[in-house]
Structure formats: structure tokens, C-alpha cells
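User: Show me sequence and structure for the first protein, then do the same for the second.

Assistant: Starting with the first protein.
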Amino acid sequence: MIPRLASPSVCVIDDEEQDYGPILDALMTLGLGCVHVRGRNGDRLPPQPFEALRLVFTDLHLSGHVGKDAASHTANVVRKVVSAANGPVLIVIWSKYAGDPAGDVGLPPEDQPTEADLFKAELLSAEPRFKARLVFAEMAKPKLPDRPAAEEWIRALQLEIENILKQIGAVEVLWAWETLARDAGIEVSETITKLAEAAGDDDMPLGEKLKPVLKLLTQQQGGPDISTATAPRHLLGVFSQIGLHVLEAASSSSSLDAHGGWLAEKLDDTTRRKHRSSKLNAVLLTSPATPAFAAFMPGTVYDVVDPQAFSAATGFSTEKLQRDCFDADPDKSPAFADFKARTKPVVLEITPACDFHQGHRRCAALLAGLEYPIDLQKRASSKDSCKTTPAFENRDVAPPVDVGFVFCGRYRFTALLDQPPAWLRPRFRFRDILTTDIRNWYSGQASRVGYLSF
């Protein structure tokens, strides 16, 4: 239970009580829960970096270190506290000596890096991934004789913290989203608790009141598919639906509203080209494959790793698939040879989501198609029997390349649910909106009327 609550978003790294006491009070007054790390020699540090940290206040001189030793020691503490795999994280350098020369005797004072610069250089050198994930800022820490009274200083710290946060609008947008998602989770819990409170006996413990509500939601979602293995998935489906409703209701009056102005500013063509649409499509329209969740989960794209086994199992060859997905007569076009050599067969699971989640399907519904390099996009068939996708960045190869997919409505087949055949390898998933688009197109193909009359 306790590890599920281990997600601090703010951290203060400081070893002097007269310094960290006021800023902890200021953060508490602002309603910002935080974790405090002293960072002294021999002090215990987290066994793993905190993955949810978003704001860190750090002193530069911990345990009496100075100069390069101080920068190296503080950088090591920050590396142990902040995860390099997550972000963005704002590192606020809160030190009395941030602007002082670093003490390099080989350089005149005016040419020396500052204490803050030396710390940043040490940190980014020790962990290069931080370069793309950290935002640095500085906040003044007056020396003891220059500090105002405690209450006045706490108020000043609150204002300074708020001003720093206002200056990082793009980062604040992501923080606002995380807050909305967390609030949605909290509201889901509150909703379920209210349902349990209304239906349960007043003398019954809360845990016992919650159980029948959670059972009912799970069983209504899962229907006849309920089992020990599938019940958690069905409950997550219910929670996701409630949470999405909460997020949609909050979108009209959220903290994101303050950023509408700069978000709506038009991008120039150079910036648009730099952030290629194919790279964005890979984020917006695909997600990782989850074979452990279900052998054939709707939207999963499979590579055909053994074309001969594929042909034996389905009754059609990959060459026949390539001919039908080519936007010309293969026997008359010299471009078909290149198309055939550079495309590879894939398979997409297209079972309706409701049948999958409620356990109504009796076999996997698979649709065959091709993956092609994006320069062959004009060669992919545009006939009604074929469906092409937007361009994606294929991140499975180095360097990444842009690819597209085309599926042919004539090549649908089924497979047993228990285990994917060895000639199929799951690679990634199309998100629900794209899977639904392809499924609806296929449904139209499958239901079209065609007959002869005399």
C-alpha cells in the first residue's frame, strides 16, 4: 500500500535548518506537499529516484563542501533524487553563493564560472539525459544578517515561488494536465465511496461497503467474461470511463485556460517541418503492444515473420496481398517490383472493443495489409477495397524512418484466441480512434450490396 503513495512532486535539498525550515513552511502554506533531503555525507538517499518530481529546490553547498567538490556532491545528490527518465523538472538553485566565482585558481575571478554554472555543468556531464528534461532557475537566499523576520520571509518566498512558476508556461501546461488527471482519479474514488456509503449499512466498515459496489461495476462491465484473470481489466475499464467524463467536464474551466493565448499562436512552416507530423502521429495514434494483457488485443499490429506459414494458415500469399494493395496493374507497371521488394505484410486485430471487453468474441478478427516506406505512399492502392493510414515514425529502427500502412478488405481471417501463432509478432497498437476508423471502413466493405439480376 505505502509504495502506491510514494509520488512526491516537490523536493527541498538543503542541510541547514535555518534555511530549509522557512521554505518548507512556505510550500506548506501554498498547499505543496514535498519531501526533504538533507544531502549530507553519509545521509541515506532514496533507493530509487522519485519519478513524479516536478519541482526541486536545492542548495549548492551541502555538508560543508565548496568549489568543485560542492558542485560534484550536490550534482550526485540530485541524480539520486531526480529520475532522468521523466520530466520536465524545474530545478531551482536556492543558494547564498549562486553568483559567486567557483574558485578556480587557474582563472581570474571574472573568467570563472559561477557556483551555479559549475553545478549545472557537473550535473549535465554526469547525466546527459537531464539536458532534455531539466529547466533551471535561480532564487535568492539572503545571508543570515540580511534576512527579514520569519513570517515576512515566508510571504516573500511564497511570492517568489509563484513568480518562478509563472515564467515557465509550457512546463506549467504539462503540470496542469497532470493535476487534472490526478484530480480525475480522486473524483473517481469519491464517486465510488459515495455509492458505497449510500447503499451500505451504517455500522459496516468502509472496506466492506466498497466491495459489493466494486463487484457490481466489474461484473456489469465484464458480463459473462468475469474471471479472476479478467476482473481487474474490466474494473479498469469502468474507472477509465468515469475518469474521462471528469476530465471532459473539467476542460471548460481548467488551469489550462490561462495559456490559451500562446497555445493558439500559429507556428511558422520551419517549426512545423522540424516537428514532423509523422513523429507526432506516432505519439497520437499509436501505443505500445500489450501481449501480456491479452493475446489478441484490438488495435494490435503484428509483423508477419514467416510468409510461408502465413500463406499456409490463411490461404493467400503475401504476393497476392501486395498485388491487391498496389495502385496500378502489377503486370503492366514497372514500379511493382520495387513496391513488392520494399513492403512487408502486417496484420491488424479489428474486433469491436465491446466484444473484447465483455468476452463475447469467439476468435480473433484479423485484417491483413502492408507496411511501406513513406516515399511509396502514392503507390499504395486508393481503391475502395483498401484503406491507408497517416504517416508514422517507425521508432523500432535506428535511425527512425517514416512509414505508412495500407489494409485490404478482401483479406480478413480469424485465429484462435489462446495464443498468437509463431509467424505473428506483436509490435505496437493503433489507438482506439484509428482502430475504430479502420474497423468502420471494413464494416462498410463487408456489408456492401452486390448482386446480379435477370
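Switching to the second protein now.
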Amino acid sequence: MYGYQRDISPNLDAFARESVVFERAYATAPHTNPALSSLFTSRMPDELGVAGGNRTLMPASVTTLAEILGAADIRSAAIVSNWALRRPDKELGDVGIAQGFGHFDDRMGDTAGLREGHFERAADATTDAAIAWLEQNQKLPGRFFLWVHYQDPHGPYTPPEGYRGSFETKGPSGLLPRLGETQEGYGQIPHYQILDGERRPNFYRDRYDEEIRFFDHEVGRLLDWLSAHDVFAESLVVFTSDHGESLGEHNYWFTHEANLYDEEVRVPFVIRYPEAMPRPSAKSLVGHLDFLPSVLDAFGLPQVPARGVSLIAHETPEGRIFPHSLHRTDSPQRWFGVTDERYRLVIPGSRPELYDIREDPGEQRNLASRENERVKAMIARYREFMAAPPVLPKVDEVELPIDDQTRRALEALGYLPPAPESVESSSSGSEGNAP
């Protein structure tokens, strides 16, 4: 549905033919918790106390989509499959992504589909859990909101039996990035991603595609259930992703949480509308900030202060921008970005990079030095965007407590540095590790 040459998503492609496939849609951040926090609040990570990434949580003072729906007596449920999205311990209070959901299924250790040691729930078990909730929900009257979060594809790229080996790229390997001893992806394969000592990029890209194919089969089962039980026709169905993945672009290998280039913050965004519902052009610039207003509009609920707009409309406002951020404002690793209809400004530290993505979609030609006025204008538009209503107070972050199990999980998913002993064990048999 986005022009890829391999047939990796036949079920999503069929879904897309009945939907609006937005060509340019953006997340606010390239990592899970900040991006999804924005999705469910229509606010920026800096405003939500989650700019620190997957080790910080929204406080209870933030109002989420699930809480708004609950106040309107609309049932809500979430099926999540990433350890970083689990409901936190009760002593922290009602914080994080889980707040407000009437049903929050974060089971990951007791399902047959779990990939051992990866602290996640595989796609087949996720679909099973979603269908189980839907079958129970069928017995109840009224409307509902269901969020089904799939972890596949995500590193390490280990598709299950039956999918591994489906794709094999032939030909020369080209550049062989080194095997990393850290979780960083610049110039190396991150430690948590290394499989069988492989350095060939196409090996990892093939496994990534196989994980997509596995996910596509399972989301197809879910969509088939909705159609077979007469739920699909009258439902607003949205498919998106929390972030993208660098597969070698800009010398970042099999990573996210690393930069704000297009490949990490541009996301699929596909909406299947009920027949009579208005919809904008697929060419509209849209993003995660538009999700909450759209869902409220679908349910006929009043709008709340939000950074985005409803996509249940014939058109979106002209001259839109979408901001992005990575790390806290006081971090030396801070990145900032702004996207408009044609240009993308990314600022790692204090060095701006400006790209004309119509002429240079791969973001290879930095125009900042000769388009200084445009750089200033885009920064000014961002400040205007953030100063416009709603101006809401920033909130204090909630730190995620790190016990031994959580540390192992975050290491396995690439969110924390690997323990020294795991680095020694994985690199002891690796040779030819030069860049």
C-alpha cells in the first residue's frame, strides 16, 4: 500500500483498498512511550513528562483518551505486547499509557507465542487476546474503543517458524557494519539486534520483512473476525505505528530512538471510515496528534484542548506543521524537528539540517546553510504552534522503577545498555569486526 516491492502485507493491502492511506503522517517521537503518549493525549512529549523515553511515564494529572471515553460511558480496552507498556506497580498510582482503560491486558509471560527472553507478546497471542475480549464484549450493549498493540516487527528480528526464510536477498552484501557492544545504532548493529554473529544488512532486512508478514497474517485474522461478526462496517478502524525504523539510512542500523530523520518519525496511517463519514485527502499532512480529536469526533463527543485536528472532515487546515522531539530539553543528545508540507528541519544539538523532501526524499542534501531564512521561519512556526491554544502546563515525569526483571526486559528490547557479561558472551566468538 506504500509501494514496497515485496508482497509482505496482503491483508493490510486489502484493508487499505477500503481506506484512506495517508501518504505523509508523522509521530511526535521515534520511541514507543513518548509517541503513544502523544497519540492518546494530542500533546507533545515535552508537555507530558515523557521526553525521557521509555523509562518515564505520564503522571495521573494528564487526561487521556481512555479517561474521556470512560466519563462518557464508552467501554475501552487495550491489548499491549511490549514490556515497556505494562501497567506500572500500584504504588505509582494511575500513571502511564494504561490510565483510564477499563480493560488493560498486558500479559506477556504466560502465552505460548511468547519469544523466550524477549519480554513481549508475539502477534498470534496478541490477536488471540483481542478476539477473546471482542467475544466477551459482544454480549454487552453500546459502543466501544479497542486498542490492539502488536510488537512485531521489533528487534531482535526473530520471526517464528513458518516465516523464517520466506525472504532471502541474493547478490553481494555491500557494506558490512560492525557488531556493536552498545545499543547505539550509528555505524554499527546494536548489541541487542545481533543474530548469529551476522553482519550482512540484507540478512536483517529479510528477517524484518518476515516479521511484518507474520504480523500481517495475524492482523488479518483480527480483521476477518470484525467482518464476520458485523462489527467492521460501522466501525472507524485506524492502523498506525508508534515510530519507524532505521535500516541503514543515514548510517543508522536497525534502530530507532536514534534520530528524527523521516525513516524514524514518518509512520503508516490508514483509516477505514464508515460509509457516510467525511474524510480528507490522502495527500493531507497528518499525524498522531490528530488521533484523539478524530476518535472523539467519531463518537460524537465534545472536543477537548488538543494539538491536532479531527480527520473526520473533508479537508485539513492549510499550512500545517508537525513537531518532533528526542530526549529531554536539557540533554546533550537532544534532537528537535519540524515537518511541513514540503520541508523537514531537524536539529541535532545546535546544528540545523533542512531538507526539501519533495526533491530529496532520502534527506541527503542539507540546505540549511543557504536557506537560513527558511530555517528561522520554521522555528518561528513551531513557536507559534506551541503558543497557540491550548497552552497547558507541563507536568512532572514519573520515573519507571528499574528492578532486575525490568532491566533485563529493557536491555533485551534495546532501551538500556547491555550488561557487561552479555557483551562479552556475544562478542567472544565474533571476528572480522572492523567497520
